[in-house]
Design a protein that fits this description.
It is a single chain. Helices cover about 40% and strands about 20% of the residues. The chain has 9 helices and 8 strands. Strands 3-4-2-5-1-6-7-8 form an 8-stranded mixed sheet, with helices on both faces. Helix 7 links the parallel strand 7 (about 180-185) and strand 8 (about 205-210). The structure holds adenosine-5'-triphosphate and magnesium ion.
Amino acid sequence: MFITFHSYKGGTGKTLLSVNLAMTLTAKGKKVCLLDLDLRAPSLSSTFNNKAPYWVNDYLSRLCDVENILTESTPDYINDGSLFVGLANPSTEAIREMSAKDRKWEMEALGRLLSLKDTLLNELGFDYIICDSSPGLQYSSINTIVVADIALVVTSVDRSDVAGTQRMLHDLYDLYEKKTGVIVNKVPQTVLSGKIPLKLDTHKLPLIEMVPCSCDILNSAGEYLFAFNNTQHPLNQSMDKIVNKIQNW
Ligand SMILES: Nc1ncnc2c1ncn2[C@@H]1O[C@H](COP(=O)(O)OP(=O)(O)OP(=O)(O)O)[C@@H](O)[C@H]1O
Ligand SMILES: [Mg+2]
């Protein structure tokens, strides 16, 4: 199964949630591939080291095979599952190159992405591909939505973010008839506890989870694997609910 994280606006929590979802599934004994498809602002190379000779960029540009972009990154304390990552090249040169790609290249990249999915799931035996993508409506983001079996759209409680998410689902996702779930992230505790009502019109969204805003996460200064070692943490409880939804969709 190919799951992509997407959002209308930047900074909503796609990278944090994609890493933690990948880790949660790995801990449940699955073979998981986490891919950085945010080629314009790669993030995962700050958490994982690339021991592979190539980057995701190179695979999309037909310079190598899928096997050449994967690094095994299963934590020592996980016995059953395995985690592999495919990283995007974070160099300034690569980012500038990716930002300059035209529509023709993006269409070819879509074909590459489809064969990447096929190879990982049908030849290499992966159970899940979890994809971190760029925010917004550029071609590269749309490519990952087209390829995905499930799209998880992350929004903040910000009014303009929710309205933009709603428009995007209506205009774009409905077109592709994707299984789509919305995750509202960084929700204030006062809202979750019911003390203050959520002032947003979220009932029109296919909401699957509200993830609490956590000072622990902010204090961790961008440590994406942050919640994993603390099984009692509310973020882990949210991840379990998201996994449950995915497995029973
Ligand atoms: N539930 C949360 N509570 C508190 N902080 C959070 C939460 N989720 C994410 N953050 C923080 O918000 C910031 C943005 O998160 P992240 O980088 O995952 O967003 P993103 O959607 O991937 O951003 P971009 O669009 O730039 O790729 C990070 O500092 C992260 O630690
Ligand atoms: Mg990100």
